[in-house]
């Protein structure tokens, strides 16, 4: 018997003692980490202790990643108050009393924003930037991004490149020398396997783009938070879409519009844009619970269901018929555990009119039980989990969990279009940033190749949006025509 269920761990995590009785509870991120979110959405939908500013600016998350790259502790915020820093600068530079007001004014202008926070004028400042509203969910998102997108090779390169010290501005030199020493934290060395990477092609693209940015210090300083934010969004988008395809081939594109263009109902960017993505994100909590549940099935001592659906498909196809039969039996046992224990040990498992009997009658198989029994049982288990959330009083956490995806998108990449509703939209600043990444070290590339590079980074534009982009490039002198007919068009790099 090569397959077995970790029964003890399964029961310990799903059946909790409460007042002398067993209570069934859905559990996530115990045995399988897919996403860092929680079922409390008050910090992203509400205003009290809101993390909206953090999830818009992304400086705190980028800085937390920077500290993990360098194995650094977070400095004491009391040592980073503007007054504390300026006082140290004045003391260290031995400024005369009569000159202090003038120097203070200059330091306030060149090094601090209106809220008293440090400008990121040097990459080392990332070590000192905290979240605007420090909270566990932001720590978790930072760790999620770091463990998904970085590896030891990239970490080493980033650490070396961002440790090179060179700043010419005398005031910046004074500020840097007056900041508290950042302590090394050997325990801050996080592994790269904490969260499961389901979209490796996106992480590879990120590593390529970050490596390019590290060659240009000013570019890195100015755009590191935006790079983190865009790839965080891109990963969530592609993850959500791919999960909903299960074992089927995945080739679905979500289209963007541009903030400044007009939109019509017939446009492909409206039909295959935000509304499509948002609809796919609604069931993300069911997938998180699904992967947690099947992770308790082991094959020769290791969890069998690691990786995305396509990776699992390869593993299933590598099994012989006897092993597939055995795995099917284990999936049936897991399904029985879930359905029976939930119904027996959960208060009000369903709303009136809903039941497992109703589920069996309404379930529509996606895969043939005869031809693909493992695929069939996996899909049926996921559907059972989704059915339970939709047809019970637990539809509330179901909705709150996905808010960490949809509300984040609305903060950054969604625009209201009046009677047409909302659309995924990109502003000029972000478009030009990604364009520079697409060109990389090339002084120019053909326009048709730029569309391909956009696609590699998850950006798809319909013909109308492409025309608007060309107009923009012409306006800011980035477009170069090699013939009078305009057949050969090149896009120049952004200086």
Short description:
The chain has helices at about 5-15, 40-45, 55, 60-70, 80-90, 100-110, 135-150, 150-160, 170-180, 200-215, 215-245, 270, 275-280, 285-295, 310-315, 320-345, 355-360, 375-390, 395-410, 430-440, 445-455, 465-475, and strands at about 5, 15-20, 20-25, 255-260, 295-300, 300-305, 415, 420-425, 445, 460, 480, 490.
Overview of this protein structure:
The chain has 495 residues and is an alpha+beta fold. It has 3 domains: 3-30 and 283-399, no CATH class; 42-243, no CATH class; 427-492, Arc Repressor Mutant, subunit A (Orthogonal Bundle). Helix content is 52%, strand content 8%. It has helices at 7-14, 42-45, 54-57, 59-69, 82-92, 100-111, 136-149, 152-161, 170-178, 200-213, 217-243, 268-271, 274-281, 284-294, 309-317, 321-345, 356-362, 373-390, 395-412, 428-439, 447-456, 463-475, and strands spanning 3-5, 15-18, 21-24, 255-258, 297-299, 302-303, 414-416, 422-426, 444-446, 460-461, 479-481, 489-492. The chain has a 4-stranded mixed sheet. It has a 3-stranded antiparallel sheet with strand order 1-5-6, with helices on one face. The chain has a 3-stranded antiparallel sheet with strand order 9-12-11. A hairpin with a 5-residue loop joins β7 and β8. α4 (59-69) crosses α7 (136-149), α10 runs antiparallel to α11 and α14 crosses α18 (373-390). The longest helix has 27 residues, at 217-243. The radius of gyration is 26 Å and the shape is globular. The mean pLDDT is 92.
